[in-house]
Specification:
By secondary structure, this protein is an alpha/beta fold. It contains twelve helices and eleven strands. It has helices at 2-17, 21-36, 41-45, 57-70, 75-78, 90-103, 105-111, 123-138, 214-222, 229-244, 254-261, 284-299, and strands at residues 142-147, 161-164, 167-169, 177-178, 198-205, 248-251, 270-276, 307-312, 320-325, 330-335, 344-345. The strands form two sheets. An eight-stranded mixed sheet has the order 6-5-1-7-8-9-10-11, sandwiched between helices. A three-stranded mixed sheet has the order 3-2-4, with no helix packed on it. Strand 10 and strand 11 (344-345) form a beta hairpin. The longest helix is centred in the first third of the chain and has 16 residues, at 2-17. Bound molecules: S-adenosylmethionine. S-adenosylmethionine is lined by residues 115-120, 123, 148-150, 153-154, 204-207, 253-254, 276-278, 281-282, 286.
Length: 347
């Protein structure tokens, strides 16, 4: 139980830090409830005591409860969830939240089995520099292969509008506009080398979400923190882009899928394997296999069939990193929040 309490406290701090005071406060109260062993949460989470930390139990719980509120099955809680038109009052929300936990145990037991699939279209802002750098350097169409693509929003990164000060990139009419994501008013990328041609948009996920369906969009909304209305608005805009730009997300485990996709070089294109906030959900063994597959494919990369790995993952220092083959370069491109904001270029 102590490790669950610590995990919930830690997640509360992350939520506060990433701009969700409502979830920060609710998760703190969850931690206190678990510690007291008197509330209904302990019984609900008892079967999950040994779940691996990377399965993010606290976020699975928040999403399962949010789904009930979004579906109209927790109206008292919805009154305090801004995503449902509520007031964001954390104290009042906790009373309603704990009532939901007590009253909806069978539904929540099922909801907890759903993996975390937080899609954040803003992460495209953090990856943008890598894509533009590769397009400018090689002048070839980009073959996009995304690990843990979920709904595939990042596979459509070139269909969004970006702005930093006077600098802009992307279709001006895009419903997705990422304009508060860059710490600097100028960006170290040359937009004259563009537009960018995309040869393929393909990803894999253990549980792909169809962003073009109603059920898919409710599911996607459930993973957004309920007081973050700007993220919800961006998500809705990204769903509308998804309805007009096709991207395939295969239901597959990342290592096997990647091995198949990289089995043969792809001459005339730049193959970009990318991932954003995915590695923490893979076991250490899976991560090692992914590294090995890329290293092996890198040995066969040529100037006519270059290979790149672009990632946004938790790590100290630059956490937007570009690896390139055949040159073997590794470039720390930027430091960015894991939701894609505060992008500070390091190049
Ligand atoms: C936090 S989401 C990130 C989604 C997307 N990259 C984004 O930034 O919007 C992590 C995704 O990784 C997927 N995932 C976890 N383990 C996986 C695996 N072994 N193979 C493929 N996908 C996996 C999950 O299903 C989930 O959709």
């Amino acid at each position: 139980m102590e490790s669950l309490v610590s995990a919930f406290k830690l997640q509360a701090q992350w939520c506060y830090g990433l701009g969700s005071p409502l979830y920060g406060a609710l998760l703190e109260r969850c931690a206190a409830d678990l510690r007291s062993r008197r509330g209904p949460l302990g019984a609900l989470l008892a079967p999950h005591g040994d779940d691996p930390p990377e399965s993010a139990l606290a976020l699975r719980l928040m999403a399962a409860v949010h789904r009930l509120a979004l579906a109209g099955e927790a109206p008292a809680l919805a009154r305090h969830y801004p995503s449902c038109g509520g007031d964001g009052d954390a104290i009042a929300a906790w009373a309603a939240f704990s009532n939901v936990i007590a009253a909806e145990q069978p539904m929540l037991h099922r909801g907890l089995l759903e993996p975390v699939q937080t899609n954040e279209v803003s992460r495209a802002a953090a990856l943008l520099g890598g894509f533009l750098m590769l397009a400018a350097r090689f002048g070839r169409p980009l073959r996009l292969l995304e690990l843990g693509a979920s709904a595939g929003f990042l596979l459509r990164w070139d269909k969004y509008r970006y702005r930093a000060g006077e600098w802009t990139w992307g279709p001006p009419s895009s419903p997705v506009c990422l304009d508060e994501h860059f710490a600097d008013a100028t960006l170290p990328f040359n937009s004259e080398a563009l537009p960018v041609a995309i040869a393929e948009r393909r990803g894999c996920d253990l549980a792909p979400i169809d962003a073009t369906s109603e059920a898919g969009s409710v599911r996607l909304r459930s993973f957004v923190w309920a007081d973050q209305r700007d993220r919800l608005a961006r998500l809705d805009a990204a769903c509308s882009v998804a309805r007009s730009v096709a991207a395939t997300v295969d239901r597959a485990d990342a290592p096997a899928w990647l091995a198949e996709k990289l089995a043969e070089p792809s001459p005339g294109t730049v193959t970009i394997v990318f991932h954003a906030v995915v590695m923490q959900y893979l076991s250490k063994n899976c991560q090692t296999i992914v590294d090995a597959i890329l290293a092996r494919a890198g040995e066969h990369a040529t100037s006519d069939a270059p290979l790149a790995r672009l990632s946004l993952e938790p790590r100290s220092g630059p956490n937007v990193v570009l690896q390139l083959w055949p040159s073997g370069e590794e470039i720390g491109l930027a430091r960015a929040s894991l939701h894609g904001g505060d992008v500070t270029w390091q190049v």
